[in-house]
Amino acid sequence: MKLLRLAALVLLSGGVFAQAEAASVASIGLTVGDLERSLAFFTDVLHFRLQAEDEHAGPAHEALEGVFGLRTRVARLTLGTETLELTQYLAPEGRPIPLDSRSNDRWFQHVAIVVRDLDAAYAHLRRHRVRHASSGPQRLPDWNPSAGGIEAFYFKDPEGHVLELLEFPRGKGDPRWQTLASASDALFLGIDHTAIVVEDTEASLGFYRDVLGLAVAGTSENHGSEQEHLNHVFGARLRITALRGASGPGIELLEYLAPRDGRPYPRDSRANDLWHWETRLAVADLAALEPRLRASAAGFVTPGTVALEDGTHALLLRDPDGHALEFHQRRERP
């Protein structure tokens, strides 16, 4: 079956990797239970800026998200040049994040926020009584050529979503973060990437690289006490693959080589459940991409491309591990 699927994919695309145009990561979205509380957290504590707020309902949005009878409030926030969208389902309400969620469960996803000074950012979070997900800030060891010297800390928003702070040393990460850190007195600079837990890196690359056209920007294998305390998973050993689109934040694949007891993404998940994240991708020609998506291991949430009231064409699907991706066709400027 896998060979037949692969053959069909190659025939449809004429060689997917050679033909696929890289998508752009336009924004990252997450579902929240209380929009007012989440807005206060992201704007007051993390210094995001509210750009717009909308309310959505109707058949097109029901079809797009796969939730009948929905009514949502959506807040669009920016930090630097990156965008985060918070969605509250006024109806129907979804389920909370499981209290026993761990960083190696495959529904895990986070955004990594780059900071100018991690010690100062951590002290700022402590003053605001922010909940820990790591035991404390960690400096990754110098023996790791890809990650050595990076400082990081996992924490939680009021709903229980995990977020990450990152400080890059010189020579690591996108050089623009060094430029911003030296030119600005802002503590929180922007979003570097969103990270997702995957079962098998090669299978995920078959989708994100070969179908979507994202480029591998770096790889690393992380382990040791620092990584264990960062992820709060004893014995953590991760294969990390950084992917980049044409623009926007990256997508980081986290494969836990150990321990291998992370739980799969719940099969009955819906967009109104609070563990739901969506990575929003802008593409040049959604109609041309859709046959390749259908021939892949992705699972469609939206039956087919829908037209929204602003003229955008969009669809929602889940990657081979269950993570949600919302595709929008780029609208041409008038």
What does this structure look like?
The chain is α+β, with helices and mostly antiparallel strands. It folds into 2 domains: 2-96 and 267-329, 2,3-Dihydroxybiphenyl 1,2-Dioxygenase, domain 1 (Roll); 109-258, 2,3-Dihydroxybiphenyl 1,2-Dioxygenase, domain 1 (Roll), CATH 3.10.180.10. The protein is 23% helix and 36% strand. It is built from 9 helices and 18 strands. The strands form 2 sheets. Strands 1, 2, 3, 4, 14, 15, 16, 17 and 18 form a 9-stranded mixed sheet that branches. Strands 5, 6, 7, 8, 9, 10, 11, 12 and 13 form a 9-stranded mixed sheet that branches. Strand 3 (71-79) and strand 4 form a beta hairpin. It is globular and about 50 Å long. The N and C termini lie far apart (45 Å).
What topology emerges from the helices and strands here?
Elements: H1 2-13, H2 16-19, E1 24-32, H3 35-45, E2 49-57, H4 59-65, E3 71-79, E4 82-91, E5 109-115, H5 118-127, E6 131-132, E7 138-139, E8 151-156, E9 162-167, H6 175-183, E10 188-198, H7 201-208, E11 215-223, H8 225-231, E12 237-244, E13 250-258, E14 277-283, H9 286-295, E15 299-300, E16 306-307, E17 313-318, E18 324-329
Parallel strand pairs: 1-4, 5-9, 10-13, 14-18
Antiparallel strand pairs: 1-14, 2-3, 3-4, 5-10, 6-8, 7-8, 8-9, 11-12, 12-13, 15-17, 16-17, 17-18
